[in-house]
User: Fold this.
Amino acid sequence: NAGVTQTPKFRVLKTGQSMTLLCAQDMNHEYMYWYRQDPGMGLRLIHYSVGEGTTAKGEVPDGYNVSRLKKQNFLLGLESAAPSQTSVYFCASSTLDRLFLNTEAFFGQGTRLTVV
Amino acid sequence: AQSVTQPDIHITVSEGASLELRCNYSYGATPYLFWYVQSPGQGLQLLLKYFSGDTLVQGIKGFEAEFKRSQSSFNLRKPSVHWSDAAEYFCAVGAYSGAGSYQLTFGKGTKLSVIP
Assistant:
């Protein structure tokens, strides 16, 4: 019963380096999200996906790219990391039933990223 | 677009005292409302949710919340706080856009400290 799994859990990057964060869910959910959490800012939506092959921008998309090639995976990429991207990143997924009644989101444990 | 306001950044209560965490939302129609809890270093766990029907909803760990449409509020309550309730609490609103996508927007969070 894995739910939502994020890898890696911790990472330190140098400014300008690139990396990809992986989110995998085993609940067959349609929707997947990437958030970043910063002190005093709550969770802010970076990008989201409403299904395989589709992505959309959230509140703070600059400096990030995403891909959803498989329904169960949602990748978040940083092409050229900056210190401002130091944050804790959370992935989440939610389902969409025909009555739109079961749309709670399930979260991963987070990835703590430090850019030096 | 929807928004969520949690007016209290930090609340301190004594163990055994009652608790109320405030949440106000902005959305044109009836939204989906959630309360999540985050313990230090952990992901987010769903406490309760409101989609429709009875405006008083019960959640896990003895929490409840009341939806008040006239006040655009969804306040979280607990009659008697335990030391283990110390955590950060996030109110969230989910809503569908005209394009059919679903977004979950979070408040900035309220940190709860419990005095033994």
User: Anything to note?
Assistant: The mean pLDDT of chain A is 92. The first strand of chain A starts at residue 4 and ends at 7. Chain A touches chain B at residues 31, 33, 35, 40-45, 48, 50, 56, 58, 90, 92, 94, 96, 100-101, 103-110 (CB under 8 Å). The radius of gyration of chain A is 14 Å.
